[in-house]
Amino acid sequence: MKKYLVDDTEYYVRMSGSGPILLMAHGFPFDAQLYDPVLERLSKRFTCVVPNLRGFGSTKLGANGRNQHGVPRVKMGRYADDLAILVSEIQCQCKLRGEKIVLCGLSMGGYISLAFVRRRPDWLAGLVFCDSNATPDSPEKARSRMELADSITQLEIQNLADRTIQSVLAPCTIKNKPSVVSAMKEMIMRQSPEAIAAGSRGMAVRSDSTETLAQIEAPTLVLGGQYDALSTPESLDLIAQQIPNATRATIPDAGHVPPMENPDAFVDALLNWYDEKVVG
Ligand code: MLT
To answer: Which residue ranges have their beta carbon within 6 Å of ligand 1?
Structure first.
């Protein structure tokens, strides 16, 4: 992985391929490995930039990953600001300065992508909004995230991994793709309690992004797994209806994490949309 100084921490980033930048933000509590199964094909068309977000994987939380009392908390806007800094650095290095990027955000990465849209709308050639939503948490959900943040320990991460696998993967993935289940478990188990607490608190206080949807000018692919129980196909249909230039795609045989569960269908949907709506 490459290392980039971003604000007060070093971001670890998987980089591959050449061409326009495709920046891919992972979900919670995952890291860049989530996109590994789609990188080989996407790298033939894009410079794929896949960071471990602040705190996750090998990227340290940094002082700015805490609130004023020193408690781990990363707001969606902080992750989005980090991504903007990272993109600027990579653009300079790859001589792509000023060129628009395609931003792909899955679940928490989707929340971050809407914060990015509010900050840098003119940087986007396209947006891929995956298995996510635009509304804030219900009070109950926010409370349970705060409880998780307050109680998470190294020992508890195994329970979190088991619960997450059951809630995010499609039943057919759990039944037929043991390697996806074990890759997901390993990925969650290597995250630190601090990163999990910081992301949880950040999501719990995220703002309502519903009005941002109508402001997205870039062509947008709203994509989700057929069996995603967290961001259902119906909820993604409603989101697509609120975005001016949206295309909708449903990935068969996948739940909340299509890049791992059905990578070929994910890549096909992304490339078809890109060729038709962004290039074409
Ligand atoms: C994710 O995959 O990022 C999470 O499901 C987001 C969430 O907990 O809202």
So the answer is: 27-28, 107-108, 203, 230, 256
Closest approach atom of ligand 1 to CA 133:
9
- Locate 233 and state its tokens: 């196909």
Q: What is the pLDDT of residues 16-51, one digit of tens each?
A: 999 999 999 999 999 999 999 999 999 999 999 999
Helix then strand count (H, E) for the chain reads: 12, 8
Residue nearest to atom 4 of ligand 1 (CA): 28
How far is the centre of ligand 1, averaged over its atoms, from the C-alpha of 236 (Å)?
15
Angle at 96 between CA 94 and CA 101, to 5 degrees: 115
Q: What are the tens digits of pLDDT across the range 216-226?
A: 999 999 999 99
Closest to 107 (Cα-Cα) out of 225, 248, 268: 225
CA distance 98 to 92: 9
What is the reported pTM?
0.97
- Nearest atom in ligand 1 to the alpha carbon of residue 110 is 3
Maximum alpha-carbon separation in the chain: 50
